[in-house]
Design goal:
This protein is an alpha/beta fold. The protein has helices at 3-21, 236-243, 271-275, 298-319, and strands spanning 33-37, 40-43, 50-52, 59-63, 69-72, 77-79, 87-91, 94-98, 111-115, 118-122, 130-138, 141-145, 153-161, 164-168, 179-183, 186-190, 202-206, 209-213, 226-231, 253-257, 288-294. Helix 1 runs parallel beside helix 4 (298-319). The chain is elongated, with a radius of gyration of 21 Å. Bound molecules: 2-acetamido-2-deoxy-beta-D-glucopyranose (11 copies). Residues 1-20 form the signal peptide.
Length: 322
């Protein structure tokens, strides 16, 4: 794991501890919520959008054991200006749609966790105007993340952990500046230009699969410590030249087909080998099928366990909010 990621993790822990240390004056528990302590509330989804009176509310979770199909409306919380909510947890929900501007007015949120939920659709600009420290999908199953869903949104780290996503549409991550970390997850179709105009600071896939991996301008992105199989043909030239240029391990991308190239790694091939014809089309920005797998080796053991530790500690911190 890169040092920068470890740094981000510790900053996250320190920030979280710092937040936990701030003690608020007593405020009454709002209707529809159970207050575990002064600033930790668990609220009923029946009351969405939730109206909160002015107060120093800090941490809110919505939880209904997935029993009702709900929308996450815009805004999900109606409250007085100058909100102090810094942590929002949506868990065990059966969500049909996270609406555009769902988190409007919640500009102080630093941690946003969506977990154990099944989500049919995330609309464009659903997370507009959030500028957060940590965003995480955890054990979610998501049908469609629509174009521009994560536009006008910043997060220092963006984690997709133990989640299955069917479709990530074109321009979903338009102009996002986060580090994108995907672990133990499956993305069935990451459409072409999903990270369009992206300024991602990192893309790490760990024990994950991206089955249909549309063409993306991943010039600065590395798939590190990933082993993958693919059909080697002219489409692979794009991968060879645009995606895996710097840190990535081309030798770990292995051709499954055609038979003449089976078992050979991309690092040993050139454009002519791949295309096997005179019609090499540089302009092609193809979709490819890349079955990925994390490399298990002694050299990577420490990195892997540290990454898992980041998730586990993050998870415990979030769960302790309940
Ligand atoms: C979620 O709601 C849909 C539609 O009502 C229903 O078919 C599905 O079984 C629900 N899922 C869960 C986990 O309850
Ligand atoms: C909200 O914050 C702004 C600037 O931080 C301040 O000018 C304003 O008075 C605050 N409003 C309320 C209702 O506290
Ligand atoms: C996201 O970060 C960029 C660059 O720092 C900034 O211009 C933009 O206003 C930020 N957006 C939000 C919603 O905070
Ligand atoms: C994701 O898919 C895998 C395999 O299809 C399944 O075992 C796992 O339970 C799914 N996870 C979620 C959160 O739906
Ligand atoms: C993930 O979610 C699924 C379905 O909600 C559940 O059956 C499973 O136990 C969860 N896994 C973990 C590790 O929480
Ligand atoms: C990316 O940026 C270019 C130029 O700034 C613009 O023409 C194009 O529409 C953008 N693409 C998307 C999907 O936003
Ligand atoms: C890639 O990253 C380097 C620094 O890490 C930066 O100088 C360069 O501008 C980036 N290139 C693009 C195309 O974003
Ligand atoms: C590509 O590699 C083959 C050997 O695998 C070699 O014969 C050929 O000259 C190379 N072509 C180029 C353009 O480097
Ligand atoms: C290249 O094409 C020739 C003739 O079509 C074929 O015999 C050969 O197996 C092909 N090589 C590869 C690597 O596909
Ligand atoms: C890539 O796949 C998408 C569907 O996921 C399709 O709309 C698009 O046309 C494909 N692009 C290419 C170049 O094949
Ligand atoms: C790649 O293919 C080989 C040979 O068929 C297989 O053993 C391996 O599990 C595959 N790896 C992935 C990541 O699918």
């Amino acid at each position: 794991m890169p040092n920068s990621m470890i740094a981000v993790f510790f900053i996250f822990v320190l920030k979280t501890v710092a937040l936990a240390d701030e003690v608020d004056t007593k405020i009454p528990c709002p209707d529809f919520c159970k207050c575990k302590s002064i600033d930790k509330m668990e609220c009923s989804v029946e009351s969405l959008p939730l109206s909160l009176p002015a107060g120093k509310f800090k941490r809110i979770s919505f939880d209904n054991k997935g029993e009702t199909l709900v929308d996450i409306p815009a805004p999900v919380i109606k409250m007085q200006p100058n909100t102090s909510i810094d942590t929002l947890v949506l868990q065990y929900l059966n969500i049909s749609t996270i609406k555009t501007n769902a988190f409007e007015g919640l500009g102080n949120i630093k941690l946003l966790l969506i977990s154990h939920s099944s989500i049919k659709k995330i609309e464009p600009y659903a997370f507009r105007n959030l500028d957060i420290t940590k965003f995480m999908f955890l054990n979610d199953s998501i049908d469609t993340i629509e174009s521009f869903a994560f536009s006008e949104f910043n997060a220092s780290t963006f984690n997709i952990f133990k989640s299955n996503i069917s479709t990530i549409q074109t321009a979903t991550f338009n102009k996002i500046t986060s580090k994108l970390l995907i672990a133990l997850s499956t993305i069935e179709d990451m459409q072409a230009q999903a990270v369009s105009n992206g300024t991602l600071t990192g893309f790490i896939a760990l024990k994950s699969r991206i089955i249909q991996f549309g063409c993306n301008n991943f010039h600065n992105i590395s798939l590190v410590k990933i082993k993958a199989n693919m059909t080697c043909n002219c489409n692979s030239v794009w991968l060879m030249e645009n995606v895996l240029t710097s840190d990535a391990n081309l030798e770990n991308i292995i051709c499954l087909a055609p038979p003449s190239l089976a078992g050979i790694s991309l690092s040993q091939l050139n454009k002519t080998d791949l295309c096997n014809s005179s019609t090499i089309t540089d302009s092609v920005c193809p979709n490819i099928t890349l079955i990925m797998e994390y490399i298990k080796s002694n050299a990577n053991k420490w990195d892997a366990s540290l990454t898992m530790l980041v998730f586990i500690v993050s998870y415990i911190l979030f769960i302790s909010l309940k």
